[in-house]
Sequence to fold (365 residues):
Amino acid sequence: MADTPLTLLGLESSCDDTAAAVVRQGDGPADILSSVVHGQADFHAAFGGVVPEIAARAHAEKLDLCVIEALDKAGLTLRDLDGIAVTAGPGLIGGVMAGVMMAKGLALGAGLPLIGVNHLAGHALTPRLTDGLVFPYLMLLVSGGHCQFLVVRGPEDFSRLGGTIDDAPGEAFDKSARLLGLPQPGGPSVEAEAALGDPAHFAFPRPLLDRPDCNLSFSGLKTALLRARDQIVAEKGGLTRADRADLCAGFQQAVADVLAEKTRRALRIYMAEAPSVPALAVAGGVAANRAIRQALEEVADQAGVRFTAPPLRLCTDNAAMIAYAGLERFRLGRRDGMDLSARPRWPLDCSVPGLVGGGRKGAKA
Ligand code: KG4
Ligand code: ZN
Fold:
């Protein structure tokens, strides 16, 4: 493993969380010395989604405070660092630019190397930080902005097996919650209602299971929920608590079934490579859902594959993953110059065509 201890500061500002973290790695596993995340949910709540201009301003205002807090918590100064890692995309461009400019200023002022990091690589490499997974492993990213299967072969070597062709699953949970008058973020509120309902009461589709590939679709599920809701309202004049619970349970079960079946297919492709220590890792906010997590864990068990899911604070957007991904790139000798640009789109695997355009939380590339 690593020989010289390295300490990196990471910055993240690609969506609606402003974050800074310090990560150190010597001979053994990496240590998170500090990880500061300032969410912006309150600023965007009234708009039903992330407003890019508000996000960019909030990042610009908060980034320096996050850096100071992260260094303070780690008990370090800029002089103790070996480099500055920063999310350079994909994401909402104003926020990414705010982070990249801050990182350039810090690197230039302190005479430190600058390392641009792909936000998705940050998520995809997190299971190495938390569980020491060895390459290659299969990764399922499921959040409000991302949904894809990746075979992670190295810090810069990713193969995308498939992904959503429309909404990300978290986005579908959030929209469904809105349709049922449940609070945001929708995932946890739908999960809580679903616990009281019957998943078989309403028939929800299982989109794209008729196709053999690993692509997914969630927007039809949300439409199915809308239709079922409108039909109940037309018949009874409103929704009872039991109707709402049954709708949530049916919707959640459909998402879990589709994710489980597509994971089974992705695992088959991955296992054909005969990985030395087969592992399935799940990350993203939706991985917090117990029914979905359990369904995926069962699929991994059946395939005889290790299952890991990083703790939620490292599954959702944070800067420790950016600092860690920066460390991995740093060890490969990668450095970026002052010409590092912020990229709204930046697919991890350029060998396959993109599936969707920008979403509510930015590009899903
Ligand atoms: O990873 P994340 O914090 O942010 C990004 O999207 O990048 O994911 C947030 C998403 C939201 O859409 C939220 O509704 C969903 O994850 N989520 C859940 C649960 N907790 C959070 N979805 C389903 N079940 C949950 N328990
Ligand atoms: Zn993310």
